Amino acid sequence: MKLHKSSRSWSKLHDLFIKISTCRLPNFPIQIILLALSHFLLPASCSRKPPPLPILPLPTAFQLQWQLGDMALFFHFGTNTFTDSEWGSGHAHPSVFNPTKLNASQWIRVAKDSGFSTVILTAKHHDGFCLWPSDYTDYSVRSSNWKNGNGDVLAELSAAAKDAGVGLGIYLSPWDRHETCYGDTLQYNEFYLAQMTELLTRYGGITDVFLDGAKGEGEKDMKYLYASWNSLIHQLQPGASIFSDLGPDTRWIGDEDGSAGFTCWSLYNKTGFEIGDIDLRYNSEGDPFGPDWIPATCDVSIRPGWFWHASEVPMSATSLLEIYYKSVGRNCKLLLNVPPNSSGLISDEDIQVLQEFTELRRSIFSHNLAINAVINASSIRGGIQDTHFSPFNVLKEGIYTYWAPGENQYKWILYINLQELVSFNVLQLQEPIYMGQRVIEFHLEALTQDGVWTRVVNGTTIGYKRLLLFPKLKSQYLKLVVDKSRADPLISYLGIYMDSVTVFRDTPDKKSRASFNGSQVLQITTTHNSSLRDVV
């Protein structure tokens, strides 16, 4: 290796060696010494190592923005709110719709204060009643008593969302129990696209379009021209993410419990499936070999029903926190339904639960217990002198910096020295998903006070965010080991937290037989290493 030749550099190097040899650098971290020495040993023509190649498939710009949002609120609102129904018949008289205290700003304020970046409104549910004055039907707010027929729920919500910087999405039910042309493929698809065009051209930017294949048994046969719908939506709102059973931009997780599979890939293969005819387990887990990037949405309602009913009460904040672990914590977006009541407001009891849920998340995740840790790695892309891929990047919030291991390595390990004994029971990991989803399997080890390495928890996929809950432990030294990966693993964030609220239950999920956090908790695999040389 060619050394720098300047006498000044050699003088600095000589002085550094003298200081080290005469012990004039007490407690000087060996990492700093190595970095300093490496400065003098760099080739004269050295340049920074480029990032590794992304691994396909990759998210689009709006899919990436969609995932960064973590959570969205769903507002189911319409004639069903006033008729104590879930699936309206399409025959309720428009006059029943009269939310005398409707305040869209309150809805948006609740969403924003609770950490939800986007709201989605049921502009039209299965009963066909429209919350905007559509030119293509008289079954809308124009025919109601609300504001003497001059109201427009979507317009008010759009204005409030824009003022608050909250994203706005719309749900336009394909199934329409009121429209007489439903069942005629050509006429109804023309009707549907005409209404979709109204929604996407009158109310500013739309971030999400929610579609589904719901339809009651025995209803008219109907073919939806989804390809035409998707093309028009992306033409009119290029930045909108389209949700359906299988995308094209985000897919349904396969249940309405807010729970993803313990393994959850954003990768997917939509070939051979149709909306309304999918493999629920496949939707829940995704596909490591899938050619399509279609991340999952976990939808669930804060109440037993999707529309507001006076007889129902919301779930507890701790229940919402468990759902958060199983949705956002499993590489998905949480879509939480909070239905406005018949006055046109979010109910006080729902607001109280959301406030408690927000405080729980804040109390757990506001401070990374590893923030002051010393981080080493089994290797670093570009070598120890290349800070662009340093293991210390995993302590920076966000996904736009990351640790990258050296090329052609067969051991991918992060060594974490917390610098003191710390009690914790939650691990958070993130990948820079704009480089592709990579990690297949990983595990966390902790060094006990007896000098024994204990495997604490096994995990599978990471993706945008992975949260793992396990029994409380206390340790200073940890190892994050990536066991399998589609390409060199890239880790953008590592967090250690203490959740003193959630009761850990190592019990299977109903659908996937996964444990509470979708991983196996292990406290039996141990290795002795009293020297601690791997981590200090």
TrEMBL record:
Annotated InterPro entries: Galactose-bd-like_sf, GH, Glyco_hydro_29, Glyco_hydro_29_N
Subcellular location as annotated: Secreted, Extracellular space, Apoplast
Location, primary (coarse class): secreted
Keyword Glycoprotein: yes
The enzyme's E.C. designation: 3.2.1.51
A single GO BP: fucose metabolic process
Annotated ranges, domain Glycoside hydrolase family 29 N-terminal: 94-357
GO terms for MF: alpha-L-fucosidase activity
The family this protein is said to belong to: Belongs to the glycosyl hydrolase 29 family.
UniProt protein name: alpha-L-fucosidase
Highest classification ranks of the organism: Eukaryota, Viridiplantae, Streptophyta, Embryophyta, Tracheophyta
